[in-house]
């Protein structure tokens, strides 16, 4: 039995097909129907799925098999999410422009003082 891959490791099309219980040709077909699904391709057209690709394949599979969506329905759902999805919020806390300028001014004053002394 093969060792389990790390969560962030690339998966081959065979590994992913086995994981979701679908043949490889279904995954290749999904690539033609869902532009969001773009695995890395290497020499000989070997496909390697990144963690975000794996998550998308699992989601497509869930929507088709468990939720009963059609291919067209999943396409519309994913296309709609892409348009509506907001940009990620900045990780840093909000700082007013005055506070930001004050921090820059203080940093420059310290640098000048250190340079002179």
How many individual helices? Answer: 5
Q: Total strand count, please? A: 3
Largest sheet, strands/sense/barrel? 3 strands, antiparallel
Low-confidence stretches: none
| Multimeric status of the protein | single chain
Mean pLDDT: 85
Secondary-structure element order, N to C: EHHEEHHH
Overall morphology = elongated
Structural class: mainly alpha
Strand content: 5-15%
Major sheet: order of its strands? 1-3-2
- Gyration radius, to the nearest Å? 24 Å
Distance between the termini: 67 Å
Sequence-ordered SSE layout with sheet pairings:
Layout: E1 11-12, H1 13-20, H2 24-33, E2 40-42, E3 46-49, H3 51-66, H4 71-84, H5 97-116
Antiparallel strand pairs: 1-3, 2-3
Question: How would you portray this structure in words?
Answer:
By secondary structure, the chain is mostly helical. It contains 5 helices and 3 strands; from the N terminus they run E-H-H-E-E-H-H-H. It has helices spanning 13-20, 24-33, 51-66, 71-84, 97-116; strands at 11-12, 40-42, 46-49. It has a 3-stranded antiparallel sheet with strand order 1-3-2. The protein starts with 10 loop residues before the first strand and ends with a helix.
